[in-house]
Design brief:
Chain lengths: 329, 290, 251
């Protein structure tokens, strides 16, 4: 697939998000901020699932660690949140390195279960260590004055998230990304071509963990609080569901999934007391009828539509042409 | 010293409930190869049904016995419906989708329970006969816990007989060992899947009904029981009922001792044990290497 | 034995009570095409798998270019200079044909480590050259999984070649191919052997192909070596005739 086709929607989205505070009210900007953070969390997860084929069920551990890094630095040492946000990916990344060292030894469902177990282990420590983390009461975070206005923090988030997603975009198309794709497709073959499969998987795990840490570090200043529920296993399910909803195979899939879920939460919680019911129903429909996700389904539909009216160019050749175009720097 | 013994015994009784729930999960995991997140929902629904039944029947022994029959059956019917109407449609897709489907069910059920029973904590009284306690070396031990241990052992024995003596049980074991072969042998696979899923749901329901008079019933018990049950299944070995018994007792006792040693970190002990098993013996203590 | 590129000394492999390979010794000389033949279950694939690092031997020593490679993981053995193909073709089904070969080249040359350098077009020319060698330069952008069985084997062959290996382990390289494809692959094996000096160790069921291609042949039976020698000598060996050619004649 040509890089233009993947980059174009991202740039359109960036422009839209940048213009948003001029178009909508403050509460909607807060919602958009929520969306940006959630989108980064889901995107970092899909580096594992979509690119490397690793279904992690413990990704919230790194999200929560990011949130707590900012909160702990702020409340224990008085460190302002911006240095905290810089420290978060380091803390989450180091923890991902330690956990990843063990989890990449396992495959498939066992990998999912081990990542879930480690995440629950961290959750149980964070939620019960009252003297350090505040336990169930959480830890307060206050942004400095210049970041207090909703719009200011929104643009700050937009900048950080854009950089991180740009990074993920480069990684997906890099030689490292190509190696991950090969490992996803056929790990045995990849090893017999000379790739050290576990090292690549570990690198992906650390990178994904660090970026989830960034997302989490943006979350606690937004809510002005870090809660243990950010690390609970149901939180780990969120990026899985969003990625599935948007489309595992498409780069912007998790972003679309995150948008769907944030909007759905907003709409549903303002009309009923039962948001989970609505989520469950939506996910059920997606699993049963749209296994490729929203983006995957739309792309398939678009390709078929484009292929039909122009039988003069066989799809093969059109695809080849697209490839040629894409491979030119 | 007797304190420790009593604590271990209550860990065993808690482990027995966990075993009943996890034995269903391990059979489903072993045969359908689905990590069934909805298993915790089955447990929770059964606990709430138990609450309703005992309230309607007035809280005595008849109500208790009726709930032990009715709640697991309700949940078994729910399980059968989920398998036949939903899971079967995506049977041939990647297991990832089946896992997500069962997760979607947990969300729907969680809010469904809130709609029907509300958000308040509920409790189910123990029947008078089981309210007291017996004496073990002079220390009291709740009679109800004794009942849990007895029922757990009966279920373990019944499952063992079923797996070894009945046709269904033999097919089930074969399916755990080699899923593809069973299809090739002319077994009615859809029927087997529905049967196993229904049986598994029934066991989760029985566990929920038995646990209802211990502690309180609340939203969220589905999330905690499912994680503990997964831990049991992994520690014991996927598809192994005896493994589930061992795993459940390990976790029950570990937690009971953990509460004495470091109350707040009791749950952490489970995950340390789980990580250790996954790393050293990923097929589980009694599981076979795939 | 000074010019043996691969040397096995007393290699055994047991799976529980089952002995797959027993006390095998084998020398593959530099620059030769060496065939490993024997009936099904003789232990040929197990032997190749041990050399490639997929299975640890239960006993014995495996030397490559004079250095022990026992205990090395597969990816290190690849970087030592041994490439392999599988009996059941192993490729990346969803990647395109050219991507399959490019990733093979990139992996071998250690060019997969950059997080940000774009992969598009990397080693495109080398990949094209390799695909031309196996006469697959036409289907470049098709997903590899859509190829016919014989084409997939040739693609895998090109991927094995991508590492510019010193030794190639080929497990039934022409299985499932049409006669034309067989002679094509045989010709390619001879050509890379002659022009690049690549040593080849392969297993094969097609006896004609073995005798026409191999410089030397090792016959395995029930996990042990029956005989080893040049094609004419092996052909004349009465035990081989009885065991192997006899079977083939009956079939």
């Amino acid at each position: 697939m040509g890089w233009r086709r993947e980059a174009a929607p991202l740039l359109v989205l960036l422009a839209t998000m940048a213009a948003l505070p001029f178009l909508v009210g403050e509460s909607d900007v807060y919602l958009a901020n929520d969306f940006l953070i959630t989108a980064l969390f889901a995107m970092s997860f899909n580096l594992l699932l979509g690119q490397a084929g690793m279904l992690s069920f413990g990704h919230a551990a790194f999200y929560g660690l990011g949130a707590y890094t900012v909160a702990l630095l702020y409340s224990k040492l008085g460190v302002p949140i911006v240095p905290g946000i810089l420290a978060a990916p380091l803390v989450a990344g180091v923890m991902a390195l330690a956990i990843g060292f063990f989890v990449v030894r396992l495959e498939g469902m066992y990998f999912a279960m081990l990542s879930l177990s480690f995440a629950q282990l961290i959750f149980s420590v964070v939620s019960s260590w009252y003297s350090f983390t505040g336990g169930d009461n959480g830890l307060p975070v206050s942004p400095p004055d210049w970041l207090l206005p909703t719009n200011a923090y929104y643009y700050f988030t937009l900048a950080v998230v854009s950089v991180c997603i740009g990074l993920l975009f480069l990684v997906r198309r890099s030689t490292f990304g190509a190696a991950l794709a090969a490992i996803r497709e056929n790990p045995q073959r990849a090893a017999y071509l000379g790739l050290n499969v576990r090292v690549y998987q570990l690198a992906a795990f650390v990178l994904a963990g660090a970026l989830a840490g960034v997302a989490g570090s943006l979350r606690s200043p937004l809510q002005q609080m870090a809660f243990p529920s950010l690390l609970y296993w149901t939180q780990s399910a969120d990026p899985v569901l969003m990625t599935l909803a948007g489309g595992v195979g498409a780069f912007i899939g998790p972003i679309v999934g995150a948008a769907l879920f944030v909007l759905l939460t907003f709409v549903v919680t303002s009309h009923t007391d039962y948001p989970l019911f609505a989520f469950g129903a939506v996910v059920l429909v997606l699993v049963l009828f749209l296994p490729k996700g929203i983006v995957g389904t739309v792309e398939g539909w678009w390709d078929r539509r484009r292929a039909k009216p122009a039988p003069a160019t066989p799809p093969q050749a059109a695809h080849a042409a697209a490839q040629q175009e894409g491979s030119r720097p | 010293m007797t304190d420790v013994l009593i604590q271990i015994l209550s860990g065993v009784s808690r482990g027995m409930v966990l075993f009943i729930v996890a034995s269903g999960l391990t059979l489903i995991f072993g045969v359908l190869r689905v990590a069934n997140f909805a298993h915790g929902s089955f447990y929770m629904v059964a606990a709430f049904v138990t609450y309703t039944v005992t309230r309607m029947a007035g809280g005595g022994m008849p109500g208790f016995l009726a709930s032990l029959v009715i709640a697991p059956l309700c949940v078994a019917a729910l399980g059968a419906a989920i398998e036949m109407l939903l899971l079967r449609r995506i049977q041939h897709r990647d297991h990832f989708y089946q896992l997500i489907l069962t997760f979607a069910i947990t969300l729907i059920v969680a809010d469904g329970v809130k709609m029907i029973w509300g958000r308040d904590y509920r409790s189910v009284p123990r029947p008078q006969l089981l309210e007291g306690s017996i004496s073990i070396f002079g220390s009291p031990f709740p009679s109800y816990y004794v009942l849990l241990i007895v029922i757990g052992l009966v279920i373990a024995l019944a499952l063992r007989l079923m797996l070894e003596r009945t046709r269904f049980g033999k097919t089930l074991r074969a399916a755990v060992a080699d899923g593809e072969m069973v299809g090739a042998l002319g077994v009615n696979v859809p029927l087997l899947y529905t049967g196993v899923f229904t049986l598994g749901a029934w066991l989760a329901g029985l566990g929920g009904a038995l646990a209802a008079p211990v502690g309180s019933i609340a939203i969220g018990i589905d999330n905690s029981i499912i994680i503990e049950s997964f831990a049991v299944v992994i520690i014991g070995g996927v598809g192994s009922v005896s493994g589930a018994l061992v795993g459940a007792l390990v976790i029950g006792v570990l937690q009971a001792i953990g509460i004495m040693v470091a109350p707040r970190l009791a749950i952490a002990f489970i995950f340390i044990a789980l990580c250790a098993v996954l790393l050293l013996r990923p097929q589980g203590l009694l599981g076979r290497r795939a | 034995m000074t010019d043996a590129v691969l040397e096995l000394r007393g290699v055994s492999k047991t799976f529980g009570p089952f002995k797959a390979v027993t006390d095998m010794s084998l020398s593959v000389l530099k620059g030769e095409i060496h065939a490993l033949i024997g009936p099904n279950g003789a232990g040929k694939s197990t032997l190749l798998n041990m050399v490639a690092g997929g299975l640890p031997p239960s006993a014995g020593e495996i030397l490559f270019a004079g250095r022990s490679i026992v205990g090395l993981p597969p990816h290190q053995i690849v970087h030592a200079g041994i490439a392999r193909s599988f009996q059941i073709t192993s490729i990346f089904p969803k990647l395109s044909v050219i991507e399959n070969v490019r990733i093979a080249l990139m992996a071998r040359q250690g060019r997969c480590r950059s997080l940000f350098a774009p992969a598009a077009g990397v080693m495109q020319d080398d990949a094209l050259a390799l695909l031309e060698q196996v006469h697959m330069e036409r289907d470049l952008d098709r997903p590899a999984g859509e190829l016919a069985a014989g084409d997939r084997k040739r693609l895998e062959f090109a991927m094995a070649l991508a590492g510019a290996p010193e030794l190639m382990l080929l497990d039934e390289p022409t299985a499932g191919m049409s006669p034309e494809e067989r002679s094509l692959v045989t010709a390619i094996i001879r050509k890379i052997n002659a022009t690049r000096g690549v040593t080849v160790l392969f297993t094969e069921h097609d006896i004609d192909m073995v005798f026409s291609t191999a410089h030397r042949i090792t016959v395995m039976h029930q996990g042990s070596k029956l005989t080893e020698g040049e094609p004419a000598a092996v052909r004349a060996n009465p035990r081989v005739r009885e065991l192997y050619l006899g079977e083939a004649a009956h079939a």
